């Protein structure tokens, strides 16, 4: 029996999220269908984490066990011929039997993209949130810095998540500007349900000048959802990079974390 890791890229627009759901088509289900066509049965796929409906991924990591004779590196090619065009396996390779795509994660990186132009873009309408009101990147970064370190992020999670603790450590939290696009880069030990989207929604209000950065400090201190801002829409969010002791998805796919 071999354990195989997959690095998966997808546009989440048409899907109900990563996990199989009764109310629509998921990324996981599409992969199961591809496995069924390929080897007549689908192994259980364990992912680095669940992405919600409409959320994208440039480096979702999943693993499965198989005794199939297909070489590990060939699974990506074989699956891609059976997957929709908005889902692609960028790499497949064998990993040790004790590797787990979720429990072995060391750092997870997300990017939230905002199109801060007067008019929305026809090309990025599904991958960037359009905000026509000017955003001040200095205010955004003043707010972003307050998330760095270890905090109780209970104020920045939606109800419905299941977790033993709401304490998380953030290693990277910054905004960068690329023409009309502002991109929020955040990396941490783990994230709560809708945490990045609530952090982003709160900072957008600050960037517009409607709130002061100090509301983030208050929210972290009081740990109540009412202290934080709105939840930013899902379509601007992408799971960008996952780091393990064994490998870094950027090293395999050749992508830099910084977007230029």
Mean pLDDT: 95
The tally of strands reads 10
What is the SS-derived class?
alpha+beta
Low-confidence stretches: none
Q: Using only CA atoms, what is the Rg?
A: 19 Å
* CATH homologous superfamily grouping of the largest domain: Pseudouridine synthase I, catalytic domain, C-terminal subdomain
The structural domain count equals 2
User: Could you give a short account of the major beta sheet?
Assistant: 10 strands, mixed
CATH class label of the largest domain: Alpha Beta
- The count of helical stretches stands at 6
Stated plainly, the CATH topology of the largest domain is called Alpha-Beta Plaits
Question: What is the percent of helical residues?
Answer: 10-25%
For this structure, the quaternary state is single chain
Folded structure, characterized:
- The structure is a single chain.
- By secondary structure, the chain is of the alpha+beta class.
- It has 2 domains: 2-103, Pseudouridine synthase I, catalytic domain, N-terminal subdomain (Alpha-Beta Plaits, 2-Layer Sandwich), CATH 3.30.70.580; 106-240, Alpha-Beta Plaits.
- It has 6 helices and 10 strands; from the N terminus they run E-H-E-E-H-E-E-E-H-E-E-E-H-H-E-H.
- Strands 1, 2, 3, 4, 5, 6, 7, 8, 9 and 10 form a 10-stranded mixed beta sheet that branches.
- The termini are far apart.
Q: In brief, what are we looking at here?
A:
This protein has 260 residues and is of the alpha+beta class. Helix content is 21%, strand content 29%.
Tags for this model:
260 residues, alpha+beta, Alpha-Beta Plaits, 2 domains, ten-stranded mixed β-sheet, globular
């Amino acid at each position: 029996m071999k354990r195989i890791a997959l690095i998966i890229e997808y546009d989440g627009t048409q899907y109900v999220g990563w996990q199989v759901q009764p109310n629509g088509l998921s990324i996981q289900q599409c992969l199961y269908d591809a496995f069924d066509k390929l080897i007549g049965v689908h192994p259980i796929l364990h992912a680095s984490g669940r992405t919600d409906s409409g959320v994208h991924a440039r480096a979702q990591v999943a693993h499965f066990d198989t005794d199939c004779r297909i070489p590990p590196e060939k699974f990506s090619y074989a699956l891609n011929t059976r997957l929709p065009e908005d889902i692609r396996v960028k790499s497949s390779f064998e990993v040790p039997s004790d590797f787990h795509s979720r429990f072995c994660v060391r750092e997870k990186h997300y990017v939230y993209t905002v199109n801060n132009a007067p008019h929305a873009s026809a090309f990025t309408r599904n991958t960037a949130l359009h905000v026509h009101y000017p955003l001040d990147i200095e205010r955004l970064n003043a707010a972003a810095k307050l998330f760095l370190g270890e905090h109780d992020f209970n104020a920045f999670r939606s109800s419905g998540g299941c977790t033993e603790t709401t304490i998380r450590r953030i290693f990277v939290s910054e905004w960068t500007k690329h023409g009309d696009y502002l991109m929020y880069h955040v990396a941490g030990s783990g994230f709560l349900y809708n945490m990045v989207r609530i952090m982003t929604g709160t900072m957008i209000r600050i960037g517009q000048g409607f709130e002061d950065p100090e509301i983030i400090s208050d929210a972290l201190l009081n740990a109540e959802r009412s202290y934080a801002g709105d939840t930013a829409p899902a379509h601007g969010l992408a799971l960008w990079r996952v780091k393990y002791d064994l490998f870094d998805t950027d090293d395999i796919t050749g992508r830099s974390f910084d977007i230029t």
